[in-house]
Amino acid sequence: xxxxxxxxxxxTNKERLVGNVKLKGSLGCSxxxxxxxxxxxxxxxxxxxxxxxxxxxxxxxxxxDLLGRVPCDKALQRxxxxxxxxxxxxxxxxxxxxCIPIKRKSGKNTRRPAWMNKELLHKLKDKKEAxxxxxxxxxxxxxxxxxxxxxxxxxRKAKVLIELNGAREVQGNKKSFYxxxxxxxxxxxxxxxxxxxxGDPAT
Length: 203
Prior knowledge:
Helix content is 44%, strand content 13%. With 203 residues, it is an alpha+beta fold. β1 and β2 (33-39) form a beta hairpin.
């Protein structure tokens, strides 16, 4: 809206998708007014279910006993490398099925970043609650901004600290160091910004 003149429309392709359209006052020093609306949709979180071997509950004594009973000389006699491997693999998988149970884990229970701790989790929870309060008009913008900045600073410090400790302990704990490096190399593919012909973000 600009001085009572309609400049923008909120259009949807589904009925009752958008509601509670409100004018929220001027945008900074501009004579344009901010338009706020709600998308009336329920959010569904999809958790991917993965299966993995539960080695903590495995019966390794029985596993070794079952593999020890395999007559390797007869089972692998006159077989090439590939056929020998397939024959051994069949016995191995049968023993695995009997001795190592399978557990399910969902995507929400995946391993946390190495720098994450209870204090940071509490800070991030405060940040989320502050955003909810600001969106509902219960928290001032300045207060919300301070909480966000404090959480961001702590995350940065935690990341730097874990990298320094990893660099100091690399000689004695190489496995932990390379696991951290491997996690850093994993990237998530997200849809990026749209850019117009002048190189500016399209809005």
